[in-house]
Structure formats: structure tokens, C-alpha cells
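User: C-alpha cells for Protein arginine N-methyltransferase, please.
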Amino acid sequence: MDNYGAADDPGVTFCIGHHEPTRTLMVTPQVVSRAHESNYDLLTVPITTTHFHSRVLGLLSSYLSNLQPPSFDRIGTMATSQNTRPLTIPPLTKLDSNLTPNEATSQLVGVTSSWIDLCSPDPLIADLSRQVLMLEVAYAAFCGIGYLLIPSPKLHHGGMHSEGVVYYARAIQDALNLGPYIQFHIWLRMVDNPELEVDSMGDLAPLARQEYLQLEAGNLPKIDPFGTWDAWDLIRKTCKYHTRLFVGKLNPLPLLALALLPHLEHPLNYITALAMPKQLPALSVQSRWHSEPVHLLTIDGSSFLKNPKGYPVLSKAHQAFIAKLMRLRTPPWILLCNVGPIPGLESAEGIETNQSQLSSSEYPSLSASKNTMILLHTSPMYGICSSDSPRAPPSKDLAQSITYEVFEKDPIKYEWYERAITKALRDWADQKKPTSHPDGKVILAVVGAGRGPLVTRALRASAEAGVDIDLWAVEKNQNAFVLLQRHNETIWDSKVTLVQSDMRSWKGPRVRRQATESGAQDPVGESLGIDDSLLYTPTKRTNDPGRASDFSAPTVSGSTYTYVDIVVSELLGSFADNELSPECLDGINDLINPVHGISIPASYSAHLTPISAPKLHSDVVNQTVSNHAAPETPYVVMLHAIDFLSTAESTGTTENLNQNNTNRASGSSSPTLATEFPTPFVQTAWSFSHPNRNIPPPSPIQSTISNSHNVRQTRLSFPTQNRGVCHGLAGYFETVLYGDVELSTNPVTMDAKSATMISWFPIYFPLKTPLNVPDNGEVVVTMYRQTDDRKVWYEWMVEVYALERISAPVMNLATPAMTGIRSGSPSVDSLKGNENAQKPQGGNSNQTGYRRVRVGMSEMHSSIKEGCLM
Ligand SMILES: C[S@@+](CC[C@H](N)C(=O)[O-])C[C@H]1O[C@@H](n2cnc3c(N)ncnc32)[C@H](O)[C@@H]1O
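Assistant: Done. Predicted C-alpha cells:
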């Protein structure tokens, strides 16, 4: 158990801003306070004016008219060297900016010029653009602007695509240094659609000289769902995952529809009544952006659609996406663009609103929108903790009472334990199994009892099953032990025998001898209260199954040691075994009834999947400055801002999915709305079972006990559908408590096995250096659970493969031979597409197949420095 956090949902504060691209108004404190009265939390402001724009265009024009056309030099370079007279923009003048430092500046988001083209293949345009940006950033920094919105890089230049993004990225790197107190937001569309990259009048891009442009490619421009994400990935990598660099996303969501929901009696009816809702990109694309640091969500007025009553409405898919973003640790600010002037502040004249049909007074008050959006924030799961904040696993130090208290609030865990114990007791009685107690009671021990919630559940289970138990509770934490004593007196009616000990040195339960030599009943043992057996020398039970109740050991105060029939423990960590449950339970393995003994849990398994987790990566990189072991430490963390790289993906857009009413590719055919992100492909790394019949006997030549039987290793292959970046691995666990009673944190099985359980966060195994993953590739994970008999640690390595299409006889095709693919999970072949899966069996004709080509590999990471001491 390793989950910490506040139990109450803190709610989300929404921050709504107003963006008017052609704002000419000088933004004074009075203007800001007027915007506040209209319930806007912030305003955008252009850094420079149209005067500045004209000045730069004028400069460029006169420069070009005096310039010789560029030509190749003797070495043959043109685009990469400029042996020409430089064009330098003189400093800003007072007509070049309306921005003046004042007390309202901190509530402004500065917007840099969108008419520049930092990506231009023409070095003159690219350099001029860079100068404009630098002048603007420097002036914004001088004025005390805290947030800058930088328009998107231009990705298409004739036949060239994304070639100049690296120049853009390099300029942002300079800008970060120039404005050390500014947060930079790169303004991107969700998908790369060349048709939306339209040049406006006065833009520098079309002024690029023909000599530098490649001719238009013959093919029609295509929408690339991950094209803008690719650009973002390059920018943030160039800027080394800088903590002040975020995404400001252009998102065509009709947000004001959401704002209007309180006015509607049955808002969902109105939404479903819409004829043609705006289309969100595929869920895989939404999921990718959800994992990125999106701090501004901009919603354009053109996105609004009207419902039959004339109000703007929002589809459920849109709501779902916004709601998901709002549950992040840092929910984005919402920026409404082109929605008309702020009432009473700006005249609509000169301001182009995309909603000619809607006047600004028709829009709801922003306070209403805030309340509505808070209503969307309903899932209890997300309020429990701060998400995506990496935290090293809990130390093995004694836990504080508050820690136990938080865990004890879990609505599922204890309920499930009680069900498991009840079932185990009923089965024991039904199967008429002999017990280890002379009176026929089932001896049950809660080992690692903490403050005793499982003890309470065991007593309830006994009453429920109608099976008498002799109950023992073992706990090493002396402070928790005080509470166990108190509970025994006040709640448990002194029915429990308490043992303050590390379970590994406990000698087992004691019962009264059936009769003393004199024939009198021994009074000790009915209820021993606090057990003092540690004061006595260890005894040895017989392992002869036929003598499970043979109390041949030396007696203590007329009592004798016996076996435990049912051991109940909860020593699990986020990755199942990472809090040394196997090692602790090994220590009491010999105390368990060798024939009929039961352990609850009976088994547990560790599961993993590769993820993209840019925020976590950035946090880990920052921690590395003070802690060199940070990138080799597994972190317990609520994973929200992540993207699963290997999924049972459905490829349709949200709209298609909505129409088809299909949901997860894992096979659910229920008619639910497809707003869930694709289901991850999670595989089993390894498992442990108890009681463990395979523990080797101690070696006579070694003083220490070997732990080698608890070493594990795995190598798993994960097909990936879309390109992305692997920052690390997400780890989960599943456990079989008893029979069909199971707990799971695995996102694929959690809902079925233990929905709403909150005791465990997932675990995150970071990669020091993120690895790029190609479309339709494979990520192969090699992982170990290692031990040196003193501590336990993990080692992990990731390889990335591209699948190269080949034509070869079927016999020669290289097929991945990985373990861990379980029934119910998509197979590697089926995720590659249907070609392999559907190829005809037999025959030796040449057929299309795939060869794996390794394109990336991490180092072997090791958490040995942070290993868990046994
Ligand atoms: C995760 S807590 C579970 C507490 C309680 N059983 C519950 O479910 O709320 C694990 C408990 O086991 C105790 N523990 C861990 N290792 C132990 C050991 N080797 N011997 C005895 N107690 C141990 C810890 O002190 C802690 O109280």
C-alpha cells in the first residue's frame, strides 16, 4: 500500500481569458478591471502594433529592392550561408507597442506577432522573423509580462514540410533566455492540416524568395494527425524539456456551448440533436495532447454551433475531452478567441467575430461557465491526490497514523478482503479440513496488521461465515501496536492475540496443550492477549503433512506452537512485489499449515506498458540536478498526463465512433459513446504465489539466507500504432486474494476487478533519455527484479524497433517471440494490421511480412541505489 493524498476533491478553478487578435486598445488597469466585471480572468495583448508590422515590411521591401538576387557561392551553398549585407531591425519606438508596464500587466497574456515566419526556408525571412520575436520578447520581459503566446511554426513551404521547425525551436531557446521570468506557450493546432495554414495579408512567409523554395510536391497536401505534435516534440526537445515551455493549443471546441448548459433543461438532448457537430481528431490524437503540458486551450468563435433554441452547444465528445483536461493537476486556462468585444469596453467595429449570428450579449456570463465546468469535474478518482507528481516509493520507515488513516478510507480494498476471508473460511468448513487448533478453530493471522482494519474484517468474516477463528495480529510498528492494544480492548472484545514483532522472527501462534502431564487443562492459550513468545527459544514445527497438529515442540507456559491456517497480509506495492511482500511472506512460510494452509493474497502479479509522459520526464530531469539517482528511481505517481504508446486502438475519429456507437477495441460491444482514450496494451511481467512450496532449504555453507528464488526477469514486446516518444514504463499490479476475489490497478482490468479502489497509484519507471517510436513499430522491454540477499531492486531497458515491410517466404519472416501476451490482450500481429493476421496459411509463395529493425535503445537502468532493504 503506497498511496498518499487528501481524500477530498479540491475542485478545479477555471481561468477564462479573452483573446482578440486585432485588439488595438491600450490595456490599462481600468480595462482589466472591466474585463473582470465581465468575468474574464485575463486578457491577451499583442506586444507590437500594426505600425511596427508596417515598419518591418517597409524595411524588407527597401532592402530587397537593393539586393542582388541570391546565388550559389563557389562552394555550392546558398541556404546555409549568407555572405550578404545583414538587415537589422532598429529598436522599437513608442508607436511600435501599446504595452506599458503597470499593475495589471501580470494578468495579461502577451501575444507575439503571427505574421512572422521563423521556419522560412529563405534565411532572410527566417532571420527577420527571429529579430521580430526577440524584440517582442525583450520588450514583453521589460514590461513584466509573465505569459507569452507564440503563434505556431509554419509547417508547409511549397514542397517542403517541417524543414524549418528546428529554426523555430532554436529561436524559442533564445527567447527562453531573453525572458527568464516568462512562461512560453507555443500555439499549435491539434492536427497538421495544410489547408488551415493560410497566409494573411502582410505575412512574411509568401515573401520568401523563389530560389529558396522547392517546387510544390505533386501530391495533394494530406492531413497528418501527429504532424503538429511532431513539431512540438522537436521544439521541446531542442529546449531540453524546459520547465517554462508549454503548449497553447488551438482547439476548435465550442466552449461557450458548455457555458450555456445551465440554461438548458436537458442539455444532452440539445447536444445530440445537432446535425453536424464539429469533429474532434481521433481519440489517439486527443490522448497524445492530453499527455502534453497544455496550459492554454483556445476556443475560436467559429467553433460555435447553435442548438434549436439558438444557443451554442457542445457535443459530448467535446465535453469529455475538456473534462479530461480539467482533471489534470494543472488544468489549462481557457482562452475564448473571436467571440466579440468585451461588453462596454471595445466596439465591435474593426473586430472580426466569427459568430456573425450571435451577438456578444447572447453569450452566457463567464461565471456561469465556470460553474458548469466545475460540474464536469465529477470523478472522485482524480481528487484524491495530486497527479503526475513523481514521488519516490514510500520508505520502509514506520508509517505515521495519518498514513494508515488515508489508506483505511479505501472503499474497496477492505470490503474485498472481508469477502475473501469469508469465502476461505466457508470453504474450509465445507471441505471439513482439519485445523491447527486443538479446539477445531481455524487459526488466522493478520501479519502486518497496521492499526487493525483487516483484523476487524477477519472477525466480521468469521461471524458471517459462521466459522470460529483463533485470531492473531502481528505488527512491527510499535506505534501502531499501541492502537492494536486499544482496539483489542475497546472493539475486539480481547479476542485477538497481539504480537509485536517483525513477522520474519515470529515463531507462530501458540495454543494450550490439550492436556498437561497431570491431566489438567492448561489455562494458557485461550486468549493470550499480548504474546510473549519472543522471549523463548525458537521451536521447530514438523513439516510432515500428516502431523499438522502435532505439537511436538517445546512448550511455553503450558502452551505449544502450532501452524497458522490462514495468513492474511497486505504488503503490496504499486508494482505488486516492490514493498517486499515476497520476502516478508517467505519469513512466515514455514508457519503456514503445510497441507491446507492458505495465504490471502494467494498470488500477485506485476504488469507494465510503455508510455509517453513528458511532464514526468521534465520533473525527473529537474530532480536530477540535486539527485543523480533520480532517473533510475521508480516513482509512485497518479498517471494522468500520459499517453499509452501501445494500445488496442480504434482508428476512427470521434465522430465516426460516435456514429458507430462502438467503444474500446478490447472487444466491448456495448453501445457506449466513444470518448474514452484507447485501451492500453498492458502485459504481465511476473508473479508470486503463497504459500511458496518452492523456497529452497537454507544452504549449510552460507550464513545468509538466499533470496535468489525471488529474482524475476521478463522481456515483452509492445506493438505501437502511432509515432511518439517513450519516456518510461507505467507499472501496475493485480492480486488474487482468494478464489475469484481480486484487486487490480491495471487500467484494463481494474473496472472489472476492483473499480474505485484508491489505495495504490501506479509506478513509473523513467528512461534517462526518451526514445522516439515510429508509426507501427515495436517497443521491447527487458526487466529484472534483482536481489543480492540484502536488498531488492529493479533493472529495465527499452528497445525500439521499426517494422520494415519485406517480401519473403513466410518461413523466413522474423516474428517477435516475446512472452507475456495474455488472452484478452491484442496480439502483436493483429495490432500490426490485418495483413499478417489474415495471410493464408501454408504454401511457400512470397508474401508480405515484417522484419524488425532496431532504431533505438536505452541503457540498462538500475534502481540499486534506491533498492529496498530486506
Ligand atoms: C501496507 S500496511 C497494511 C496495514 C493494514 N494491514 C491495512 O491493510 O490497513 C503494512 C503493514 O505491515 C507492517 N509490516 C511491514 N513489514 C512487516 C514485517 N516484516 N513484520 C511485521 N509487520 C510488517 C507495516 O508496519 C504496516 O503496518
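User: Anything notable?

Assistant: Residues 123-143 form the longest helix (21 residues).
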